[in-house]
Amino acid sequence: MSDKTPATCDVTGTQQQGAHRWKSLCTLLLSAAPFCVACIACGMTAAPRPLNASRAFPPMAFAQYSVNFGEVPPMPVIDAHFDFVNRSSGPVEVLGLRPSCNCLQPHLMGDRTTYKPGEAGRFHIQVRTANEPSGPQDYLVEMDYRGADEQVYSEIVIFRVTLPELKVTVEPSEVLFYQLSGEAGTQTIHVTDFRDEPLQVTEVVCDSPHPSFVVGEAVIDEHGRSTIPIQINIPEGLPPMREITFINIRTSDEEFSQLQVPILIHGPLQSEEILPASSTVAAPLPIDSTDVPPDADGHEQP
To answer: Has this prediction a pTM greater than 0.70?
Structure first.
């Protein structure tokens, strides 16, 4: 038994030494790997990306693509504007401003549509709060324009505002008269005041000579809201015409001294005109809706 014990110890020691050498070799190879990779990379020829793969910028750039007024105090009209500049090397032509709703009525400052390289421009929007729901509101405007390369571009900007609680509304927010056969027509709009001391309608006028108006008595509902009906009458025998203007409702209230509603009057058809699918639009009872401001004044935003 004593003769076999030393032999066993020698074999075990030899195995341990072999494992230690193999572990040291692996460690050496792993530590040298980064150096080998670096040498291989240095020997490779770099292939730069072609310049034409870079993204080209559009000709127009806006100072702000999003304007946020946050919560505003009660006011009949909110004015905002967006500034832009032609950063291209050629002239650009603005083709149109497309709002997300008719309540904005965007218009270019000075009615300019063409801008030379480096020239700046501005367009205004107005939100009339009388017919707008309270709470956070997002309004978008898309500007279409043509660059010097004859390509048509589009840029979208957004106006954010938190409107106060409803005070005064006008329903419907627009009035359409299609007198295609020359007949007379009548529609009714409603001015609703949600406040404890409601306004009074003192006068209703319009730039068009065709409509006439009859202001009715105020009706108080179970919630204490005052609603004043205004009847709009269009006479028979209109000439062939298509007219868009505004109804101006003047009131006794200083804050909402004038409410405006767009009106379209379409007389009998010309021979080349196409008959629309519907020739009458019913006037609904007062509900939450969207107003259409007509103002084209370029007021500065706060």
So the answer is: no
Residue 288 has, within 13 A of its CA and on its CB side, a CA count of 6
Q: What is the chain's alpha carbon radius of gyration, rounded to the nearest angstrom? A: 37
**Three-state DSSP class for residue 291:** coil
Contacts of 241 (CB under 8 A, 6+ apart): 265, 266, 267
**What gap in Å lies between CA 281 and CA 91, rounded to an integer?**
44
E strands, 87-218, in order: 92-99, 107-108, 114-115, 120-128, 135-146, 152-163, 168-171, 175-178, 185-193, 201-206, 212-215
Helix (H) or strand (E) holding 56: none
Q: Both tokens of residue 87?
A: 């950063």
At 13 the pLDDT is: 53
Q: What does the longest C-alpha to C-alpha distance in the chain come to?
A: 135
For residues 239 and 276, give the distance between their C-alpha atoms in angstroms, rounded to a whole number: 18
CA atoms within 13 A on the CB side of 96: 3
Report d(CA 159, CA 128) in Å as an integer: 14
Q: Decide which of 104 and 276 is more confident.
A: 104
Query: How far from chain centre, in Å, is Cα 80?
Result: 12
Q: Say if residues 226 and 218 touch (Cβ distance below 8 Å).
A: yes
pLDDT for position 55: 62
